[in-house]
Amino acid sequence: MLTRNNYLRALVFGVAVIGAVAAAPASAKVEGDTITLGSAISFTGKYSTNGIHAKNGYNLGVKKINEMGGVNVGGKAYKLKIIYYDDESTPLRTSQLAERLIKQDGIKFILGPYSSATTKAIAPVTEKYKIPMVEAEGASRSLFTQGYKYLFAVLSTSEQYLASSIALAAEIAKKNGKKPSDVKVAMAFENDPFSLDVRAGVVDDTKKYSMKIVIDDKLPRDLSDMAATLTKVKALKPDLLVVSGHSKGAATAARQIKEMKINTPMIAMTHCEAAKIVKKFGGSTDGYLCPTQWAETLSYKDDMFGTAADYDKLFKATYDGYKNVPYQSAQATAAVMVWKDAFERAQSFDTEKLRDALAATEMKTFYGNIKFSKAGNNISKPMVLRQIQNGKFNVVAPLKWASHKVEWPRMVK
Question: Which domain holds residue 307?
Answer without folding.
Answer: 4-156+297-371
